[in-house]
Design brief:
The complex is a heterodimer of chains A (about 325) and B (about 270). Chain A is α/β, with parallel strands linked by helices. Chain A contains ten helices and twelve strands. Chain A is globular, with a radius of gyration of 21 Å. The two termini of chain A are about 30 Å apart. Helix content of chain B is about 70%, strand content about 0%. Classes of the chains: A alpha/beta (about 325), B mainly alpha (about 270). At the A-B interface, helix 2 and helix 3 of A face helix 8 and helix 9 of B.
């Protein structure tokens, strides 16, 4: 078994919200005990609704938010022991909003060349060559280098964002909803570009999305998140062909299927809205929306336990196939 | 009409005129502003020989206004550069780092806003003594709170933008992020504040000189000319009218220019192709 590139061990990020006077201080458990690993060259899909803690998890992996508990290890070494620049050369990120993620006052060339200079690539010819090579890889023309972000379309901007993430030759790229801000017609292009680059450069991805359709297309393994916790994780086949957590089934049922290839059982659908992370329901966090709800779900929190090797689900009824 | 059109052009024109007068003062002045005294010509009303008249010592008011422009504009520009440097440095670091430093800077800013800056400048002048250099220091240290507040607020709104996070992830240092990622994107409002502040500094110089704490006689500044004209306001009104007009037009020009710049530096209008 290959060595893990990224290892999250019981990672938790809690925020203190509110004030002492207005209603008291509450703890928001944005990420609550997440253990996952990513191996070199693999794509882990991370799905969940808005507000389930996906983006907070991404920022914690990048070291932008200090963890409340647990560890993030890259290449077997804890994030806190690593040099900031060394970490930057190992893991990078593609952002959701291509309009806010590029500096409006910098040309594309500067956006791509400055990181190289910071990381000690001072030879002008080499910087030029690497910028030109990266632009070609993401499908932009050489003359685009001297333009400003406002001269590009959303899809082109996202290509620039991908080029910026890859310019330092990282091993792992975290894509935080890379296509959800783009037109539907552009999404497939960007997804395919990401897949091509993964093969060419031997990258590992964490593909964060609320859209299981995107994750289905790119992932080798999938982790499903609900209210700060992983509720089910496993290989592509296990998740899409034999989902065990009712929340996973509900997400799969929500993938648009215009040709009605698969009949969706009515009980697969989740009821209502995601609960507030400030006051999660007792027991299993999912029980108020769950079609399988029983008394035990209210009183006991189900642990994330193995069903088969590499396939784990946090449900009291995980042995019951959908 | 294009955005900012009229006020930008009128303001820019007035400011350019004031700058030209200051730069070319030796060429366009008719007599020496200090040594040109001639008691035979004392208090002559405006006419063909002396377009703006003469003062009690027989000095040509027009020539003194030309040379006075140098001092008034120097005070306006240098004190605003000082104010902007202090304000932007404090505001940028406070907004970016936050925490205790932010509390400290914000508290100091509120303190500075609470003290009338002219009174504060007066106190500094009283310690340093009159003169151009102490005037620049006094006015340069007392009104940085506006640019500091603007810079801080702008940084706070930019800090969560994707490109700032991306820069941190790419390994940019804090100072590099502040100066290459944040500052270029908040420069617009800061330039506007500095331009508007120049008018305020010119008025403050006039007020301090009027109170006898600014430029010492016999050297001319618009404020000290007004101050000297006070006694003869009934007998020789041109002594106060022309320096007053010079101050009025320059401050008006700077304010119009600031307004015009605010319009064209609005982020909404920067999407034109370059």
């Amino acid at each position: 078994m290959a060595e893990s590139l990224l290892q999250l061990d019981d990672l938790a990020v809690h925020f203190k919200v509110g004030s002492t006077f207005a209603g008291g201080i509450h703890t928001l458990k944005a990420v609550d005990g997440v253990t996952i690993d990513v191996k070199p060259g693999e794509c882990l899909g991370l799905v969940g609704e808005s507000g389930c803690g996906k983006s907070t998890l991404a920022l914690a992996i990048m070291g932008l938010i200090p963890p409340t508990r647990g560890h993030v290890a890259l290449d077997g070494r804890d994030l806190s022991e690593r040099e900031r620049l060394e970490t930057a050369r190992t893991v990078q990120m593609v952002f959701q909003d291509p309009y806010a993620s590029l500096n409006p006052r910098q040309t594309v060339r500067r956006t791509l060349a400055d990181p190289l200079r910071i990381h000690g690539v001072t030879d002008k010819a080499e910087v030029e060559a690497r910028v030109a090579d990266m632009l070609a890889r993401v499908g932009l023309r050489p003359e685009h280098a001297d333009r400003y972000p406002h001269e590009f379309s959303g899809g082109q901007r996202q290509r620039i964002g991908i080029a910026r993430a890859l310019i330092l030759k990282p091993k792992l790229v975290i894509c935080d909803e890379p296509v959800s801000a783009l037109d539907v017609s552009i999404r497939a292009q960007i997804i395919n570009l990401l897949l091509e680059l993964k093969d060419e450069l031997g990258l590992a991805y964490i593909m964060i999305s609320h859209d299981l359709g995107v994750v289905e297309h790119v992932s080798d393994r999938v982790a499903v998140m609900y209210l700060g916790r992983i509720v089910e994780q496993g290989g592509w086949q296990e998740i899409f062909e034999d989902p065990r957590h009712p929340y996973t089934r509900a997400l799969i049922a929500a993938i648009p299927d215009p040709f009605q290839r698969a009949a969706v059982p009515a009980r697969a659908k989740a009821k209502g809205e995601i609960a507030s992370a400030l006051a999660p329901p007792p027991g299993c966090h999912f029980h108020p929306r769950c079609p399988l709800k029983a008394d035990i779900c209210v009183s006991q929190d189900p642990p994330l336990e193995a069903i088969a090797a590499g396939h784990r689900a946090a449900c009291h009824f995980r042995d019951r196939s959908g | 009409m294009r955005k900012g059109g009229l006020s930008l052009w009128v303001g820019g024109g007035l400011v350019a005129l004031a700058l030209a007068v200051a730069i070319f003062a030796p060429l366009i002045a008719l007599t020496d502003p200090v040594m040109g005294a001639n008691l035979m010509n004392a208090e002559i009303p405006p006419g063909l020989e002396f377009p703006f008249g003469t003062d009690a010592q027989g000095r040509d008011i027009y020539s003194r206004i030309c040379y006075g422009a140098r001092i008034s504009l120097t005070v306006g520009i240098v004190s605003q550069i000082l104010n902007s440097l202090i304000g932007v440095t404090l505001g940028l670091t406070a907004g970016y780092w936050g925490g205790l430093w932010d509390d400290l800077v914000s508290g100091l800013t509120n303190l500075m806003l609470a003290i009338p800056s002219l009174i504060f400048a007066l106190a500094i002048m009283a310690i340093l003594g009159p003169g151009l250099v102490s005037l620049l220091i006094a006015l340069g240290l007392t009104s940085w709170s506006y640019s500091c507040r603007i810079a801080r607020a702008q940084v706070l709104s930019l800090k969560s933008q994707g490109y700032i996070q991306a820069a941190r992830i790419l390994g940019y240092g804090d100072l590099r992020i502040m100066f290459t990622q944040v500052l270029p994107n908040i420069l617009g409002p800061l330039i506007v504040i500095a331009t508007l502040g120049m008018g305020g500094a010119i008025l403050a110089e006039a007020a301090l000189s009027f109170l006898g704490l600014g430029i010492r006689p016999p050297f001319p500044s618009w404020g000290s000319m007004l101050s000297e004209a006070r006694d003869q306001i009934n007998t020789a009104p041109w002594l106060s009218v022309f320096p007053g007009l010079a101050i009025f037009l320059t401050v008006l020009g700077l304010n119009l220019l600031g307004d015009g710049l605010r319009d064209i530096l609005d982020p909404q209008s920067t999407t034109r192709r370059t």
